[in-house]
Amino acid sequence: MIKNSKILSILNTDGSETLGVVTSRGVIDVRAVANKMKIDAPLTLDQLLQEGNTAGFDSVVAHADQSGVAYLNEANITFGRLFKNPGKIICVGLNYRGHADEVGMARPHVPPLFNKYNNSLAAHQCVLKIPPPEVSHKLDYETELLIVVGKKMRNVSEADALSYVAGYCNANDFSSRDIQLELPSGQWMIGKTLDQYAPIGPYFVTADLVGDPNNLQLQTFVNGEMRQNSNTADFIHNTQKMLSYISTYWALEPGDIIFTGTPQGVIAGMPKDKQVWLKKGDKVVSRIEKLGDLEFTLG
C-alpha cells in the first residue's frame, strides 16, 4: 500500500480530475510529470488504490524535480473529487457516545450500517446545491472521519484490522433530517444520499502519517461558529471494530470508503426551539486533526 503521502485531487481545465501530491516544495502535478517522464502512473486516487500501481506513483514523486514540471501552489488549485468511483460507500450511524446521548437513543451494540452512492461524492470547496424546500429543508452537517481501505479484507479480526487501511480523509455526511427521520418509517438512505451529500477532502493522508485513528480531534464550524467539538476517542465502536464487523458481511476491497459517524453538536440534537437548519449561502468547515479543513458552501 502507498505510504508517506498526502494527496489531493486537481480539477483541470479540461474537466478531468487528477492527482496532486503535497510536498514541502508545492504540489506535484502527477499527470504532468507522468506525461513528461513517460511514466505509467495512476492518475486518480481510485486507480491508485484499486489497481495498486504504487511503483508508478512513487516513480512520479521521485522524478518530479528531474521532470522540470513546475510545482503547483495549492492556493491556486481548483479541487476535484478525491473519489469518483469507489466500489462501496459504507456508513456507520450513531457511533459517538455524546451524539447518541444528545438525540436520546440507546448506544448500539453493533455498528448500524447504511450506504451512500457515487452521486453524493463532492469536492473540497464545492458549492453544494441544496434541494428545493419542497423536497427537503431540514439540512444538517455531520463531520466524520473517513476510512479508506487499502487491501481486500474478509472476516478480519479486530487485532489485524488497521493493517488493511490505506489512509483517512475528512468527510461530511450531509443530511436531510426531514427525509431521514420524518417520512413514514424513516428514509435514512434517501436522506443521506442526495446529490453532493458526501463532500470529502481536502486530502487523502496515508495511514502511517495519521497514526491512531481513535484519537483525532473533530470540529465543525458554520459561518465561523463552532458547532461540533469532539474526538474519535468517543467512538462507541472504534476503527478496528467497525472494519472487523463490516468484513464479516462483505469483502471490503481496495478503494472502498467508510464514513464512521459524527459526534454531538448536530442541529438534529438541539432542542426543537433552537434548531436553525442550514440554508443557501451558509459556509460549513469540517476540521479533523492531521487531515485538514474540508470546506463547502451551500448554493
List keywords for this structure.
299 residues, alpha+beta, Fumarylacetoacetate hydrolase, domain 2, ten-stranded mixed β-sheet, five-stranded mixed β-sheet
CATH architecture assignment name of the largest domain: Alpha-Beta Complex
**Helix amount, in percent?**
10-25%
What Rg is obtained from the alpha carbons, in whole angstroms?
19 Å
- pLDDT under 50 segments (min length 5)? none
* Mean of residue pLDDT values: 97
Shape: globular
| Beta-strand residue fraction | 25-35%
Domain tally = 2
Q: Which class of the largest domain in CATH terms?
A: Alpha Beta
Distinct helical segment count: 9
Number of strands: 17
How is the biggest beta sheet arranged? 10 strands, mixed
CATH topology of the largest domain: Fumarylacetoacetate hydrolase, domain 2
Describe what you observe in this structure:
This protein has helices at residues 30-37, 45-51, 54-62, 64-67, 97-102, 177-182, 188-192, 207-210, 239-247; strands at 6-11, 17-23, 26-29, 89-92, 113-115, 121-123, 126-128, 139-140, 143-149, 165-172, 175-176, 198-206, 217-222, 225-231, 257-259, 283-288, 292-298. By secondary structure, it is of the alpha+beta class. The protein has two domains: 6-76, no CATH class; 89-298, Alpha-Beta Complex (Fumarylacetoacetate hydrolase, domain 2), CATH 3.90.850.10. The strands form three sheets. Strands 1, 2, 3, 4, 5, 6, 9, 10, 12 and 15 form a ten-stranded mixed beta sheet that branches. A five-stranded mixed beta sheet has the order 7-17-16-13-14, with no helix packed on it. A two-stranded antiparallel ribbon has the order 8-11. 46% of the residues are buried. The model has no long low-confidence stretch (mean pLDDT 97).
